[in-house]
Write a structure and sequence with these properties.
single chain, 210 residues, mainly alpha, Arc Repressor Mutant, subunit A, 2 domains, two-stranded antiparallel ribbon, 9 helices, elongated
Length: 210
Amino acid sequence: MRIDEKTFIMSLKESEYKNYEYVKSADKLILFAIDLLEKNHVEPRFDHIVISAFKLFPKKFSMPLYSEYPDALRVDHCLLHCSYGNKWLDGSIKQGYKLNETGRSILEGFLKEISQQKKEDITHRKVVNRKEKAIIDQLIKSKAYSYFLNNKLGDLDADYIKEALRCTPAADEETIKNNIKKIENYAKDIGADKKIFDFINKIRNLLELK
């Protein structure tokens, strides 16, 4: 193995396509890995494919009980399916593998499918983030937050603090704690200002929540 090939393979990171573990056909992920090797002038031989598939898709190509290690047997099964079964690949373990015309057509369709799912995921995240931002904006406009900024939160009636947390005056401790956790997670998701987290921690201390 040439050092440049090994360096490239070891530099691979987990795929940005986070739903890959739910792909029914692991064979298509193998096509992706082989295509990536070919495009980067790395010989698509068995050991290269095993490590590349594992680096790109660890949740799909790791050993069941030892997830830090690649599952070479699963990769071997996929290669058999792709070459002798589906005939998407030409070659063998001894010769190495390459995508044939049919394999490239299958990969192209798979990449389009991934691209569409990514767009749907981005759209979903935008919708979710709008909701989260609206909740944090409402928190910032609350009387409790205004008192916090002026270092007077301790002087404020507890009902106003509960209102800022989207709780009723009669809310019990468990409900308040759950709402605080939700708001804190929303703040993390949108990358809210540090003052929001300081405000949340201040409320925890004032209400003596553990």
